[in-house]
Amino acid sequence: MSRGFVKEDDAQTPPIVPPRAALPAGTPNYVTPNGLALLHAELATLEATRTQAEADRDNDTDRTHRLSLLNGRLALLAERLASAKVIDPSTQPPGEVRFGATVTLRTLSGGKVGFERTLTLVGVDEADVAANKVGFVAPIARALVGAKLGQTIALPLGPKPETVEVVQITYA
What we know:
The chain is α/β, with parallel strands linked by helices. The protein has 4 helices and 7 strands, in the order αβααββββαββ. The strands form 2 sheets. The chain has a 5-stranded mixed sheet with strand order 5-4-3-7-6. A two-stranded parallel sheet has the order 1-2. Strand 3 and strand 4 form a beta hairpin. Helix 2 runs antiparallel to helix 3. The longest helix is centred in the middle third of the chain and has 24 residues.
């Protein structure tokens, strides 16, 4: 598009830096050792990308925009890393659901009776629903924390709570 159709103010608009995963105010930023490694890998990637953007002198307006976005993302990541509290799952009580637990649940009522699912309670930056990793601040995780092997729990999974039994708890 020709520069004649672009308002000069648009070039100076600061970028919108996407926020990191939500962490409620006053909540500690618990991370697993793997979660901390992922944050450090993300930091290395962002720093490498910033170095490349700094070296690219083709279009100063685009370069400035990209650098502003990268610096914003790096600042948010630095805050997360500074507040990270590493919890080693192997130090958690083996018979109770705590941070870092991998929990197998069997549905008793309210859903597919007999259906089993396995979830791992992780830090908010490590959460990945597709990988069955649930952030420790999620409602399902909060409902599970403190549960013991064999205990039944009502989970907030839709319009009606689903009753599940804790059939296995492991820590890796």
